Amino acid sequence: MKKLFTVYDRYIFMQVLITTIVAILLFTIVWIAPEMLLNTIKKVLAHEYTAKTGVLVLVYELPKILGKAFPVGLLLGSLFTFDKLSKDSELTIFRAVGMSFHRILAPVLVLSFIVTYLCFVTYDKLIPYSCQKLLEIKGGAALTQYIYTKKDENNYPEQAVVVSRFFQGNMTDVIVMNFSKQIFSDLHGLENILVAKNGHKGLTLSGKSSWILEDVTSYDIDEEGIFKRVTQKDRVDILVGDDADDAYTIMINSTKRDRDIDNKNLKHYVNLLKKANLDENYRLMANKYYQRFFHPFVCVLLAVMGCLLGFSKPREQRLIGFTIAIGCIFVYYITLPFFDLLAEKGVLHPLLTAAFPPIAFLVAIIMFYRTRDL
């Protein structure tokens, strides 16, 4: 019975692993050194951070860099290893003893699937965790304004809530516009406006979730659009039940970038955006959610591409392969915002915008493979 993992496999696996780790370290150092490290040192010297806090900031910044470093490192690691094996005629020896290109590639594929899993976990767990820690160190973030519109089954607005500022669970300067059932040809009439100085999410007297507004001024409006009564109230509950939970979750997540949210919560956020008919935000975040699954798979594609670029004749120039590799990395990352925009504006379905870059890489690899004499 043949061994599944031969001496050759261990040799290639370790060679690519070592060069990949070196490439990841170099990428991380280059990424973190120019600005991030300098800014952290400045804050430590200005006594904004302690030395311990400065180190923690750099540590928590690492996962965001690793998410990009894994595929890049694997591409450069496989390219450098196979280029060296080609120049040393070791690949020629492997071919001479009857090993096909696919068999030679096997240990690299095993490593690429391991890195793919690490990349997936990094985006799902490590990056959201590190972003939360950085938020705690830097003191959180404030939302200047948030608008939520509650609609009925016919998609007509029932209530619009404007939050002027949200910070650490507390809302200030909240305006609530309650729409009347009467619909005019050019607008929806208002029957009441609430202006609250403060608000927070809590429970009603019956135990349901709600947004609790405090120190509220209520303006009742007649059918002619004239204020007919102004009253002062200590407390008003709005968005009771699921509406309160959904609106609060959307508001919380709207202050975050997609990388700050793990896969489970990102999927829930996407579903809420769709339910609330926030189409542009829904399409953008759906695209980001699908990217969580397609981006790690790029590690496999780049590993194969690195092997193809490095699989050269002894006298072929090394610079050509490295130039193509850098160009591929540049094109991939520079086009991601473009596909984000296509998804947000509804030009293409979010699933297509997330899948297109990896599919394009796959097609390029197949075409490049057919042109190579392997």
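That was protein one. Protein two is written in the same sequence-then-structure order:
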Amino acid sequence: MSRIIRVGIIQQSCTADMKYNLQKIYRNIATVAQAGAQLVVLQELHNSLYFCQTEDTRLFDLAEPIPGSSTNFYSDIASTFGIVLVTSLFERRATGLYHNTAVVFDKDGSIAGKYRKMHIPDDPAYYEKFYFTPGDIGFEPIQTSIGKLGVQVCWDQWYPEGARMMALKGAELLIYPTAIGWESSDTKDEKLRQLDAWITVQRGHAVANGLPVISVNRVGHEADPSGQTNGIQFWGNSFVTGPQGELIAQADNYKEENIIVDIDMDRSENVRRWWPFLRDRRIDEFGELTKRFRD
């Protein structure tokens, strides 16, 4: 008999009004939970606007300790609806030390675990190195009442090593809260290439590891507070794939959407029997992967 998990993914826009954002998140979670979702995944840094478009020391005031007010808020939601909930928060670990941290709540409201974003980008309009210290708790899956979740965050999704590490430690799902979009000066063809690459690389993680992948992106336009660019149009397209990279569900480019997806957790077992990539890995020849480059 198949083990089916019903997943709710929430793709939404954000505003400068954090109270409004939280109210909308609550309503959306309620909607998918009432539709039977057992696991709900939110996008990256969902409490606020994507503040990394500029470097501004005042924005560190958005960070908070874990546990803290946001974890209390989401803990109550998880226990109220009896769901496993994947969130993405700006963590204040100590004075001058901050992380981009995913926090997972089990259905009793307890914190099942957290993951600190490992790969930190630094690109125009994505000045994350100014705000976030790279994660230091590794690629550790988080055990929950519905299974072992391999949670990473956004820029991590471009790196096959993280997905593999999660798979090797027993993750049953790969999950990526995300905030990615287009810069207005890119051509239409370039925008399409970027979006296709983003989807393709994550489908590749599903195939290479024989695991379902859940990727939840934000949507909508967010202005650049400095006025130096035209801001970011977050491209949505949140999606779920099965363990052969098959697209099970995909959201719109521009619309807010709540999507319910049923994932057969037993399918990975059969896929890994058909495609035994873990069996055939030449681990005796992979030592040099720990080098920056092979000169």
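The longest strand covers residues 84-94. Keep this in mind for the problem set.
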